[in-house]
Write the structure tokens for this entry.
Amino acid sequence: MVIDPVCKMEIPEGNIKAQNKGKTYYFCSSNCQAEFMIYPNKFVK
């Protein structure tokens, strides 16, 4: 299980993902993925 960086929901690793600074992030939905892609620094420490 992983944490969606946008909505903070615990989810299984799945097909909805994105790379940022060499790390893979997983999302509960394409909406969370889209939000992350627009503002990645808002969600990555």
Helices lie at 30-38, 40-43. The first strand starts at residue 2 and ends at 3. The chain has one domain: 2-43.
